[in-house]
Amino acid sequence: MAQIKVSAPGKVILYGEHAVVYGKTAVASSLSLRTNAELIELPESNEKIIQLDFSNVNLSISLPIQQILDCFFTASFSHVNCDTKINELLHSVSQFVNTLDPLLQRDTPDYKNQKTSLEAFFFSLVYISHMEQIDLTKTAFKVHISSSLELGAGLGSSAAFAVSLAGCLLRWAQLQKNIQKNAFDNEDLEKISNYAKNCERVTHETPSGIDNTVCTYGSIIKFREDKKEKLTFIPDVNLLLVNTKIIRDTKIQVMKAARLKSLYPLIIQPILDSMDIIAEKAWNILNEANSPDLPSTSTGSTAANWCDKLSILVHMNQGLLNALDVSHPKLEMICATAWLNGYAGKLTGAGGGGFAYIMLKPHTEMANLGPLIDQLAEQDFNVKMAKIGGDGVKLEY
């Protein structure tokens, strides 16, 4: 019986969110916080079922596999044309999940996330099963997904969900074909990223592709219109992640920026152009940190110099995002508190709430951040430290 576990990192956009939607450059990084997806084939039984356990949204349900086959594995959704009928499949998945409403916890805060998680799961299951010709009739199976990422807060939780699930399903398809490997190769990664980008349409409608790219490939990535460049050296930089506890909707934030651009194009276009320049400049500085002349410990004045430069650009980028009307008073409080303590902070992701990050100097420890953390705690913000630039999606077993 197959037992597969795949993990994928969260992400943080360091520079260029919203501008990336309009073809500008963004710089993003993977986080040390990860999502795990596990697929386990169940012992043979008369009843072929699928068990789903999504611990972060308090969802545990079972349903007959035949119910899925009857809905999605017909002539209208063959593996030949599934890739050209994404919108139709998205609509059908939404309708299918509506029929599962009695199994969900309608009167709880988890209800919306439960529906979204199910839509993302069934879209990926059906889509990848068609494309990779997975045989769902062979055995009952269980899928468990858990994460150390807060949901819908700008840290790539939906992309990490989609990437880890895509990795699980792709590996399952390979095992059914007796393909043995210990790690994902470049062809696998390209497939996983593309599958996850389509899955991201469940939550983001028209995803830029940056989230699934970072969660798939890891590291620090420069991204522009589906073209990526990966940093070969990862500076020893930690971020302080600060949760505003404000729930926001990515679609609404993107629409808000689009409306402002439509109303005031001569004002907003230069803002987007400036964000593009900031992201390009930050990328150049990060590559300078890759210089062989930089001390290997990254503790000297050279390291402090490039980190200070990056922090100034963080501060500038936040000002431009505020001008785009995608910030929030809570985010501004976090950034002001950081600035008063000698650090730079900005929102990450769609804005309007969610998380901000504060860039820390190399080798900064939590113990040395007492005054800053105390001030943020007094304002009722939750904080955690995370390292940037780690592994992308990987096969755990």
Automatic annotation (TrEMBL):
EC number: 2.7.1.36
Keywords assigned: ATP-binding, Cytoplasm, Kinase, Lipid biosynthesis, Lipid metabolism, Magnesium, Nucleotide-binding, Steroid biosynthesis, Steroid metabolism, Sterol biosynthesis, Sterol metabolism, Transferase
Cell compartment(s), UniProt: Cytoplasm
Broad enzyme group: transferase
A single GO BP: cholesterol biosynthetic process
UniProt xrefs under InterPro entries: GHMP_kinase_C_sf, GHMP_kinase_N_dom, Mev_gal_kin, Ribosomal_Su5_D2-typ_SF, Ribsml_uS5_D2-typ_fold_subgr
Organism: Pogonomyrmex barbatus (red harvester ant)
Family indicated by similarity: Belongs to the GHMP kinase family. Mevalonate kinase subfamily.
Pfam families linked: GHMP_kinases_N
UniProt name for this protein: Mevalonate kinase
A GO term from the CC aspect: cytosol
Cross-referenced NCBIfam families: mevalon_kin (TIGR00549)
GO molecular function ontology, one term from the record: ATP binding
